[in-house]
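Need tokens for this chain, all 344 residues.
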Amino acid sequence: MEFTAKQIAEMIGGRIEGNENAAVHTFAKIEEGQEGALSFLSNPKYKHFLYDTHSSIVLINDDLQLEQPVTTTLIRVPDAYEAVAKLLQIYESIKPRKTGVDTLAFVSPKATIGKDVYIGPFACIGDGAVIGDGTQIYPNVVIGEGVTIGQKCLLYPNVTIYQGCKLGNAVTIHAGSVIGADGFGFAPGTEGYDKIPQIGIVIIEDNVEIGANTCIDRSTMGATVIHRGVKLDNLIQVAHNCEIGENTVMSAQVGMAGSTKIGQWCMVGGQAGFAGHIHVADKTFVGAQCGVISNTKGNEQLIGSPAMEPKTYFRGMAILKHLPDMYRELAQLKRQVEEMQNSK
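Here are the structure tokens for all 344 residues:
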């Protein structure tokens, strides 16, 4: 597929500087630009690449001031990063989609399959499962009994969805993820730990994306819920009875203990951890490797473990580096006091 600068500008409401007939057929980073590629510049520290890039078209911010001539065609937009994201979405949406059930797939005769569905080889669709129109299920995916999947979902290879779980529309789940495994529920007994049956489900609402090898456990009772618009990175653990609010995003290796509730529009850095049975309020920004052990107020930023406000954290770190000297001084003062007492 090929697009001209004029066509691209019309799609994103941009203003062309250069050849409106310049054509592109692929995307490239600005520092790796090549003929026929579209690039973008949003971070000023990469500005010097603009003057040497071989990309045919570059998206730039309206307020970018040029310091020397450029050979590429420019399209000015309010936000270059947002514009390229929109173009990538358009590009992805017009790619041909697979349809049909592969002869090596197993589909239960008791399952309901919508229109224009793709089911790849060695996928398994259990009794009573419902697959919505336009959904794509790649090889080795396992859909358990009674699972409901909405329209235009995308399940990459080796995804497993346990019995009874429910997915909304336009849900993307990347390879190796497990939805609906048992929550980690055990009660100590006289001879070990007795398993507590996990009889709930997982509910994933519309427009959620879940990264590779992420696990979302079914609830003990009721449901573990991932609300509309949530984006989860790879290798995340969501325990039983947790709830993640609309449009919250999490980076890789985040861990949530059971019954944790996270609000809307939160941002969570990589390897952050959440204690169980706490409530993280809306618009809480949690830094990487942060340990959140209690409820939050919302509209705040937290870093460190245990989690605290940045000013408090950095004041503590400033003192921490002086602790060895303070310890030596304290030991010296202690010896001096002892010497004074012994001299009496």
